[in-house]
Amino acid sequence: MITMSETTPGVQVDVFSKARTDELTSMEKIRCILDSVKEGNVVVLSAGLSSDEESRLVEKTMSEINPDNFTGIEIKRPNRTPSQSGGFFSKFVGSDDGGNDITFVAPADKIEEVDAEDGELLSALLHGE
Amino acid sequence: MSQHMFDGIKKAVGKVLPMSLFSDGEPKRIGIYGPPNAGKSTLTNQIIKDWADDEDEDLVDTSELEHETQKAQRKSVTIERNDATVNLDVVDTPGVTTEVNYEDFMEDMDKEDAVDRSRGATEGVAEAMHWLREDVDGVIYVIDSTKDPFTQVNTMLVGIIESQDLPAVVLANKTDLDGSNVQRVESAFPQHDVVAGSAKSGENIGDLYDEIAEKFG
Fold it and tell me: Is B3-13+29-216 CATH 1.10.10.10?
């Protein structure tokens, strides 16, 4: 596994395949995500999180926020709106409860934008240091 | 059978059967959810003023500053609309967010108070998320209609509400303010009943009570 040195400029992106996350329990998945994000990395989950897992991730995040070094996370699902469970970007999405949507989880304020164009091309714009 | 076990069984059965089957008069627990500063506590106070069982029921604190509500607060009310009587335990919850930075409060207080406020906020959000999964029978989702509703927090919370099969009413709040855009809220939540109104001025809140009585009665 690549690990950035402290002097390397840039952002490390950890991509979790569906095969990898399917091996994990919900709590193990949440632990992996938070450990990576707390190191400053951006996590990409190709199979996303269920709504239940997302709520547990937020709950766990809140318990680990530390005024000195961790202010929370942001969760991005491309072009997802409060009412969408599919639509033109359905190649990137799955079940109605939010599971199987490709999902970005990052330290707060790390992601500028995530966008899916015509369901074919996924772009993410990240803030550098 | 313990009360805890009974409540658990009732909640599990309630997932697959209409809530009206539980016509024992026991109050429904209705969570008032939404992002910070949407007007949840102001709505709670309006409901208390209009319908509190106890005339001396305390109002909840409100503020222009985010994260004023740091612990969920439960208030008992009985709403009577259109010949229907609905007993509710209304729960005012802290505004849900995925990040809390004490520096955001430093303009209004010193560092120690800002850190305390951020700690309280994180505990409150965690509690609100837990309640949403485990301990509410329905949701009043409050949106500031002057702001963009297409946010990740709204997406996430609505996804959780729908995955739990919770009945929900959306209040497009703050219609008394310039910049209110109810149509934008309706387009963001087309599968939900949206009521437009102002918890602060009381404008159109009667329609919200009609919807509450219909949805949660």
Answer: no
